[in-house]
Amino acid sequence: MNEHALTRLVFKYRSSFMVLGVFSIFFNILVLTMPIYMLTVFSHVMTSRSQETLTLLTVAAIVALIIQGLLDFIRSRILVRIGLTLDMELTPQVVEAIVRHAAGSAERNSQRLRDAAELRNFLTGTGIFNLFDAPFVPFYVLVIYLMHPMLGHLALFGSLLLFAIAVVNELITRKPVKSALADNHRTQQRVDEFVRNADAIEAMGMMPAVIEQWRMQNNTSLMSLNKGADTASYMQGLAKFVRFLIQVLLYGVGAYLFLQEELMTGAIIASSILMGRALAPVEAAISTWKNMVGAKNAFDRLKEILAPERLEPYRNRMSLPTPEGRLQLERVVVMAPGTDRMTLKGVGFAIEPGDFLGVVGPSGAGKSTLAKLIVGILRPKSGSARLDGVDLASWHPDELGQHVGYLPQDVQLFNGTVRENIARLSRNNDPEAVIDAAKKVGMHETILQLPNGYDTNIGDGGAMLSAGQRQHLGLARALYGNPRLLILDEPNSNLDSVSEEALLKTLEAAKKEGITIVVITHRPSILQSADKMLMLRNGMVEMFGTRAQIMQKITAPSGMQQPANKEQNAPKLMAQGESR
Questions:
Q1: What residues have CB less than 8 Å from 281, skipping those under 6 apart?
Q2: What is the DSSP track for 238-288?
Q3: Which CATH superfamily is domain 5-313 in?
Q4: CATH code assigned to 327-540+551-557+564-573
Q5: 327 near 113, Cβ under 8 Å?
C-alpha cells in the first residue's frame, strides 16, 4: 500500500466506468425515442392518416426501446461485476488492516468492514446512475429549446431551481447527517461491546443498565438523524412541488402556444416527457444525498485505515533466517495504547537460546505488556527489543509468528475444530504436528474423547470446552510447529494440580528441545525449571538473576523458611491478576 492506494484501487475500474459512461450516452440518446415518436405521430401521422408511416414509426420505436432496455441491463450487470471484483480486492485488505491495527490496541470492532460494504453498495447501486445521467440534463433542455424557446426557458429555469434546492439541501443536511452517521457507528460499537460481555451482563443483572445506556446513546443518534431527515424531507417535498409545478406550467405554456398556432400537440407531449427526464436525476440526487454522504464518509475512513504508515511495514519485507531464540531488551519504554502513560519504564535484560525465564510481579507491574512486546504486538516508544540481534520491528509479523508460540492471559480461540485451532487456522496443516502438539500438553486423550475427536467444533471462542481445556488447547497451539520462542502469560491460571503437573513436564520438555521460554505467572510453583527470573514492579525491573537468587530475595521476609516452602510463600507477596 502507498499513499493513495484506495483511490487507485477505485480508479483501477475507471475503464469499466468509462464503458458505463459510453453506454449511458447511447441510453440517454435513446430516451428521445418516446418524445420523437409522440411528436411524429401527433404532427404527421394524425394529419396524414398514413398507416404505413404509423407502422414504421412504431416498429422503429419498439426496436429503439429494446436497445435502450439492453443498454440499461448491461449497465446494471457491469456495476454488479465491478462490485464483486472490488469487494474481492478491497475487503481482504480491510480485514488485514482491522486485525493488524487491533493487535496491541484497545480498538476491537469491524466497523471498517461495514464501511467497505457501504462504499461497494453505493458504487454498484442504481443511485450512481444519477451521476451518469445528470450531465445529459443540458442536452434535454437544448432539445426542448429546439421545440420552442419559451418552453426551453421554462425547462432551464426548472432545472436550475432544482439544482439550487439540491445545493441548499447539501449545505443544510451535511452536518446533521454526518453527525447521525457517526452516532450510529458509535452505537453499533457499543452493542458489539455488550455482546462480547453478554455472560457478565446476564449473570450480574446488568441488563437494565445496559438497556438504559444504549437507549441514551441511541436517542442521541436518533435526534441527529431526525433533524437531518426532517430537513431532507422538506427539500424532497419542495423538489417534488417544483417538478410538478414546472410540468403544469409547461402544459399551460404549451397550450397557450398551441392556441397561438406556434406549437403542435405532439411537441407539448414530447416536451413534457423530456422535462420529466431532465428533472429526474436532480430530484433523485436530493433523495439519495444521505447515501452519497455515507459513501463519502466511508471512503474517507477506509483511506485512514489503509494509510501507508499503517500497512507499509508489512509490505516487501526481506525474509530472515530461523532464530535461535536469543532475546535482548535494552532500556525499553512502552506506552499504553492511545495514552501517554508508560507501562514499561526502561526495562532491560538478556537471555540465551534455550533459557527459561520466569517473570513475576504484582498486578499492574506490566508483565502482560512485556509479553506483547516480546512477541511483536507492541512496539517500544524508545529502546530496543531484539531477537537474535535483529530488532523485532524488522521481522514481518507473519514470518516471526512461525517461530513464536504465544499463550495470552485471555485465551483467544476461534469458532472451528480442535484441529484448526491447534494448527493456527492453517488449512494445509500437518496432522502429525497437530497430534504432537496435543501430546506435548497432555491433551491428546482428552481430545479423543470429544464427539468427533480432533474434528470436533469447539464453538465461538471455545464455548464447548471448559476453561482448563481452553487453556490446554491454547498451549497446544503455542507449541504447534516447533517454535523457537515460547511466551506463556499465566498458563496455569485455570489449571488444577494434575494439569499443572502436566504443564511442568511440558515446560521441561520444551527446555530440553532448546526452546527459549518466557513464563509470566503469579504462582512461581511452575517455575521449578526456570534458569532466570525477572521481577517487575510499576513497569520497572526490580530484580533479575538466577531463579535461586530471586526466590531467596522474595522469600527473605518470611524468616527461617525451608527451601521447600519458599515457592508456597512467594505467591502471598504478589497480587493476583495482570496488567494489560
A1: 130, 133, 134, 136, 137
A2: HHHHHHHHHHHHHHHHHHHHHHTTSS-HHHHHHHHHHHHHHHHHHHHHHHT
A3: ABC transporter type 1, transmembrane domain (1.20.1560.10)
A4: 3.40.50.300
A5: no
Alpha-carbon distance 522 to 571, whole Å? 6
Paired sense of beta strands 382-387 and 390-391, if any: antiparallel
For 311, left (φ over 0), alpha (ψ -120 to 50), or beta?
alpha
Q: Round to whole Å and give the CA distance between 482 and 405.
A: 8
- Express each pLDDT in 119-152 by its tens digit: 887 877 766 777 778 788 888 889 888 888 998 8
**Can you give the residue ranges of every domain in the chain?**
5-313, 327-540+551-557+564-573
Alpha-carbon torsion angle 485, 487, 492, 498, nearest 10: 0
pLDDT in tens, 498-554: 788 888 888 888 888 889 999 998 877 888 888 899 999 998 998 898 888 888 877
Q: What are phi and psi of 4, to 5 degrees?
A: -120, 45
Task: Give Cα separations from 283 to 24, 162, 239, 292, 452 (angstroms).
Answer: 18, 7, 6, 14, 60
Pair 329, 384: CB distance under 8 Å? yes
As a whole number, mean pLDDT of residues 349-371 equals: 89
